[in-house]
Design a protein that fits this description.
CATH topology of chain B: Ribose 5-phosphate Isomerase B, Chain: A
Oligomer: heterodimer
CATH architecture of chain A: Orthogonal Bundle
Number of helices of chain B: 5
Radius of gyration of chain B: 13 Å
Radius of gyration of chain A: 14 Å
Number of strands of chain B: 5
CATH superfamily of chain B: Sugar-phosphate isomerase, RpiB/LacA/LacB
Shape of chain B: globular
Structural class of chain B: alpha/beta
Strand content of chain A: under 5%
Helix content of chain B: 40-55%
Number of domains of chain A: 1
Strand content of chain B: 15-25%
CATH architecture of chain B: 3-Layer(aba) Sandwich
CATH class of chain A: Mainly Alpha
Order of helices and strands of chain B: EHEHEHEHEH
């Protein structure tokens, strides 16, 4: 993942930033998300889009993007992680590929968050991603 | 005097269409519910074109209410349930009584949570009149 502070980004990351700018502006201005969480969300979404060859738009990915930004903010603010859900764990039981993609992207986020991304958060991100892929 | 007007509810989040259907059925003819995007739904409530907002995500926390919190303010939103805390009559009545107009809960609790929330809203309206709940 690119350094969130770097000036030049890939065009895919720029597209992602533009697509979700209204949403992320709203959330950041209301302090629902932190600037770091926003940047990590944009970069993570771009990386997942590239890796899975999927197009994320407001129409298909708004809940995923919001969730990701809020979850990364929770971690950035060192708040308690989301409680695990047996329903979610069951939903993604066989979704190894998607979970691995999320895990890999989050490993890069961890370096900037200075905090491990807990399994429960990985699971919620994965179930959101799977919902998008299943609707395609 | 008790208010019997139609309550306008917007549902957003995971399976918003299913949520809207549950809300409408739970309202027994007193609720009109529509499935919308979270920002669109919250804006309608803010403009007074809808009365209440129901939001789900998988965890019931931030994602379900992030847009509503940003647009309506934190005093108007309440988490009704989380994966570790089932939605209850008492919790919902408390939130409605506090003047909350946006409610978040996990998708997995939709079937139980929405009828409880609608019931509490209608009871609150019947007791307090139409000024109740207008954000």
């Amino acid at each position: 993942m690119a350094d969130p502070g770097a000036v030049s980004e890939t065009s895919l990351a720029e597209q992602i930033s533009a697509e979700f700018a209204e949403r992320l502006d709203l959330l950041e201005e209301a302090r629902q998300i932190t600037p770091l969480a926003r940047r990590l969300t944009e970069l993570a979404i771009a990386e997942i889009a590239d890796e899975l060859a999927v197009t994320f738009t407001e129409e298909n990915a708004a809940p995923f993007v919001t969730h990701l930004a809020v979850a990364l903010t929770r971690l950035n603010r060192f708040e308690r992680e989301a409680a695990p859900s047996a329903v979610v764990d069951e939903e993604i039981r066989d979704r190894t590929r998607e979970r691995e993609v999320i895990q890999r992207v989050m490993e890069e986020c961890e370096k900037l968050l200075d905090r491990e991304v807990p399994e429960s958060e990985i699971a919620y991100m994965t179930v959101h991603l799977c919902a998008i892929l299943d609707d395609e | 005097m008790a208010s019997r007007e139609i309550i306008r509810v917007v549902a957003a989040g995971v399976d918003a269409a299913g949520m809207a259907k549950i809300a409408q059925e739970a309202g027994g003819g007193r609720v009109e519910a529509a499935a919308l995007g979270d920002m669109q739904g919250a804006r309608l409530v803010k403009k007074g074109q809808a009365d209440y907002y129901l939001g789900t995500c998988w965890s019931g926390g931030g994602g379900a209410l992030a847009a509503a919190t940003a647009l309506l303010g934190s005093t108007k939103v309440g988490i009704a349930g989380t994966p570790g805390m089932a939605v209850s009559d008492e919790k919902v009545a408390q939130l409605v009584g506090e003047g909350k107009i946006a409610f978040g809960f996990p998708y997995e609790q939709s079937r139980s949570a929405i009828p409880l929330i609608i019931k509490a809203i209608l009871a609150h309206r019947d007791t307090n009149g139409e000024e109740a709940g207008n954000g």
